[in-house]
Amino acid sequence: MPAISNAAEKDRKVNTLIISGGNISSDFALDFMEKQNIDYIIAADRGLAFARRYGIRPDLIVGDFDSVSREIIEGYRREGKVPIRTYNPVKDDTDTQIALEKALEAGSSRIWILGGTGTRLDHVLGNICILKQADRAGVPAFLVDEHNRISLVSSRAVLKKEEQFGAYVSFLPLGDRAFGVNLTGFKYPLSDSVLTSDNSLGISNEITADEACVSVQGGTLIMIESRD
């Protein structure tokens, strides 16, 4: 699918999936993809190995390809059916960030990232931070795995109890602090509160109403929906 360029296409909702190189539970990921009705798939570097293994055809491949086998990437090159964007390994941006930028350029209306979490905590924290690019563009973006769904809230978000990802919802400031934080419909409500980076006040809340609402007047919250 090309970047959205005309007025009619701009109104189309494009549900984009990025497959990155972190840990991916195949059972969760395949079930998730089926339920989400994905329109556009970007494979980032080692995420391409997962796509190849399960017969998932990406619409775009990006990366420096230092963590995926030459056999896999050369196979896609020979087929010539999927655009491939190759980057120098000595670069400022991670492969996941490049994929996110390409997703935004393609006119995505929602972005999901599989393989954006795992044992490399530096990459996990970096991937949480790059969600800010999508947030600034007004595009909902999520890091998702079998235990967590992570997104950002810079204004207001509503969570329906019947659609909740897991039993727990945690809020942390992205940066030093977030102020004017309001939580309604939660077990532990907040009113015009300040969450700071040196305090765990926002950890492990629970939805109690049919709908729960979080809003913030200044700063940005990391919202982590979790299940054991």
What order do the SSEs take from the amino end to the carboxyl end, as H and E? HEHEHEHEHEHEEEEEEEE
User: Percent range for helical residues?
Assistant: 25-40%
Largest sheet: 9 strands, mixed
- Principal-axes shape call: elongated
**Poorly predicted runs:** 1-8
Radius of gyration based on Cα positions: 18 Å
Through-space gap between termini: 37 Å
Beta strand count: 13
Could you report the average pLDDT, rounded to the nearest whole number?
Answer: 92
Output the number of helix runs. Answer: 6
List the helices and strands and how they pair.
Layout: H1 7-10, E1 15-19, H2 26-36, E2 40-44, H3 47-53, E3 60-63, H4 70-79, E4 84-86, H5 95-105, E5 110-114, H6 121-136, E6 141-144, E7 148-153, E8 156-160, E9 168-173, E10 177-184, E11 190-196, E12 211-215, E13 221-226
Parallel strand pairs: 1-2, 1-5, 2-3, 3-4, 5-6
Antiparallel strand pairs: 6-7, 7-13, 8-12, 9-13, 10-11, 10-12
